[in-house]
Write the structure tokens for this entry.
Amino acid sequence: MVDMVRTAELKAASTRRPWYSQLWIQVLIAMAIGIFLGWFRPDTGAQMQPLGDAFIKVIRMLIAPLIFCTVVHGVAHMADMARVGRVAIKALVYFEVLTTIALVIGLTAVNILQPGAGMNVDVSQINPSAVEPYLKQTQAVGLVAFLTNIIPNTFVGAFAEGNILQVLFISILSGFALIGLGERGRPLTDLIDRAAHMIFGIVNIVMWAAPLGAFGAIAFTVGKFGIGSLASLGKLLFGFYLTCLIFVFAVLWPICAFIGVSLPKLLRYISEELLICFATTSSETVLPRMLTKMQKAGADESVVGLVIPTGYSFNLDGTCLYLATAAVFLAQATNTPMNIEQQIGLLLILLATSKGAAGIAGAAFVVLAATLSAHGSIPVQSVALVLGIHRLMSQGLTPTNLVGNAVATLVIAKWENALDETQLHAVLDGQETARAAAA
């Protein structure tokens, strides 16, 4: 499937497009204009929100059919149910280890930096009405609710709701069914492959609007929250962004080095996707492009099709950093005592709740409220303290999630002997594009 996409990209590279026509340049310019507008005309900037929301909605519209086509074709292409299960188990083990490390790093950093110390917030003075819509959703968070929610009410219901895990569940079952059909299922497998190419074509068209979406999202963020939010909770924001950088360079970099991949080159390779994530605070906006890019980087289609969608629910490293940081920050801000035993208890709760919010709007914030509710000692209404800067923190957690899933894909592909390392290094070094330009 990736061959056709790769051919199109190589042909595009050979035309030597001018620098200003490159997507990452356009997104950067759009973000700069959005920051300028939000800063100097905050009311106008806040009104740009529909541009960002519309772009996200269009991408989300394509995710379910794209995952279905990619996963079904990849599983059917494996023609080995045992291998599918092996890849899934390896991915889940890796995800659990990395998210646990992320939670430990988050708890350690927030205890060292103490961003909430000295705030002395009186919980009784907090108006809980602003967070009531999120608190109502906490009942959907939990291990049992999470497991039962994987099974959709109807086959088409998963597509209608856009629930990634439900679509993944249906896709794997469909892929197994096609394996069982053997040659009789090949025409349907080929049809699904052609449908995937069509959807990738739509994605390429929609991505032309990425700068407009980035402009609207960043203008809204700066216009609505402005410098005031940064000043009042600047220590928390600084500490959280620092924690994200520590995780990326102290955890993911050694993992990349272990499998023979340069993290700086990988970050450069997915730089456009990172910029879009940062601007829109949604990693879903680049899920289709990540499926294509990781295949182009030499990872087998079947591994990419399983690891990327699963990672969007189970491998949320940035979200785990956010949850650990925000929870302890609220304890510090409200003078809620938390000894080491209580923090270990919080860690265990986070290990469960961080996996239980797939498909819930504002998932990270909902999980934070659910975690405080389950823990019992930190006042749940205190989440209102971080509501105003949640979007600003999301601009750190979503790119971290993206980098984590990119690394995870390469790790699992290497572990499964399904990584073309020659192709990988050629892509990361830019040699493939150079060859295409010279052709």
Remarks:
- Residues 34 and 219 are 4 Å apart (CA to CA).
- The chain has one domain: 2-438.
- The longest helix spans residues 81-113.
